[in-house]
Design brief:
alpha/beta; 10 strands; 260 residues; 8-stranded mixed beta sheet
C-alpha cells in the first residue's frame, strides 16, 4: 500500500464483520490543504509509528482521524499526530477505520485494534481521536463492556480486553445526540469509564461546543476521572497545525505524564 508512510497491517485476518469486501483504500489529497484523506475504507488497517528503543515508554496509543464518519483526515489528524506521540515515547498506531457511513464497522474496528495492540505487549493502550474520531474514541471508552462483534474463540487476540486505559478527545463531535443535546444514548458512562482528556471550544457550535460540557457532566456524575480544556474560541478541524492546535498538545502531554 504505497500511500502509507509505513507498512500498514490489516486488523482482520480473515473475514471482516459485516461482510465488507477487502479492497484497497480510496484516497486523494484534499484540496483544502489537509493533505492525504481517505474517502473509502473497507479493509481497516493500523499504521505503526515506533519510537527509538531508548525513548520508548512501553505504552501505546491508537489514533483515530476525523471526517464525519464520511472520510478520514488521515494525514492531518492521523499521521502527524502519531509522529508527535512517537516523539514522546509512545508506540502510535493510526487506525484507518471503515468509512463512509459505517459507525458499527468503525466501532468493531477500534475494539479489534485495541485488542491487537494489547497483544503486542503494550503496558497500556489508549486512544486519541479528532471530531468523529473523538466520537469513536469515546464510544470505545464507554462501550468496552459491550463487544460489537462476535469474538473468535480460536483467535488469541479476541480473548483480550478491548477497554482502553485512557482516552483523549480533541474537538469531539456527536456526543450530544440525545434529546435536547444531552448525552448520546449509546454512551454508557460509569465509574469504570477510563480517564478522559477533552479539548473543545465554545465557538465550535456544531461539534465540540455542545459535546464537551455534555461528556464532562456525564463523567462527573459517574465519578469517573476527566480533565477538560474548554476555550472560548478555536473553531474546528485544526489538528496540530494552527490556533488551538498549537495549545492542546502541551496540556495533553502533561496529562499523559501524570497518568499512572
Amino acid at each position: 500500500m504505497a500511500q502509507y508512510l509505513n507498512k500498514a497491517v490489516e486488523i482482520w485476518p480473515k473475514e471482516i464483520p459485516g461482510g465488507s469486501e477487502k479492497k484497497d483504500v480510496n484516497w486523494q489529497n484534499h484540496e483544502g490543504g489537509d493533505g492525504r484523506c481517505f474517502y473509502e475504507v473497507s479493509n481497516p488497517t493500523l499504521e505503526a509509528f515506533v519510537p527509538d528503543s531508548a525513548k520508548s515508554n512501553g505504552k501505546a496509543i491508537i489514533v483515530c482521524p476525523g471526517g464525519g464518519y464520511q472520510m478520514l483526515a488521515y494525514e492531518k489528524e492521523g499521521q502527524e499526530v502519531a509522529q508527535w506521540l512517537s516523539s514522546l515515547g509512545y508506540n502510535a498506531y493510526v487506525l484507518a477505520y471503515r468509512v463512509p457511513k459505517n459507525r458499527l464497522g468503525a466501532l468493531q474496528d477500534i475494539q479489534r485494534s485495541i485488542r491487537l495492540v494489547r497483544s503486542k505487549g503494550a503496558l497500556q493502550v489508549g486512544v486519541i481521536g479528532f471530531s468523529a474520531g473523538a466520537s469513536l474514541s469515546c464510544r470505545a471508552c464507554t462501550r468496552w463492556s459491550e463487544p460489537s462483534y462476535k469474538a473468535n474463540p480460536k483467535d488469541k487476540v479476541d480473548t483480550l480486553s478491548c477497554r482502553p486505559d485512557f482516552g483523549i478527545l480533541i474537538y469531539p463531535a456527536y456526543l450530544d445526540e440525545g434529546e435536547n443535546h444531552t448525552l448520546t444514548p449509546e454512551l454508557t458512562v460509569t465509574k469504570d469509564t477510563p480517564p478522559l482528556f477533552v479539548f473543545g471550544t465554545e465557538d465550535d457550535v456544531r461539534y465540540s461546543g455542545p459535546s464537551t460540557p455534555v461528556i464532562l457532566e456525564a463523567m462527573q456524575k459517574a465519578g469517573a476521572p476527566i480533565e477538560v480544556h474548554y476555550l472560548t474560541k478555536g473553531g474546528h478541524g485544526y489538528g496540530m497545525r494552527r490556533g488551538a492546535g498549537l495549545i492542546w498538545p502541551t496540556s495533553a502531554k502533561e496529562w499523559l505524564n501524570a497518568l499512572k
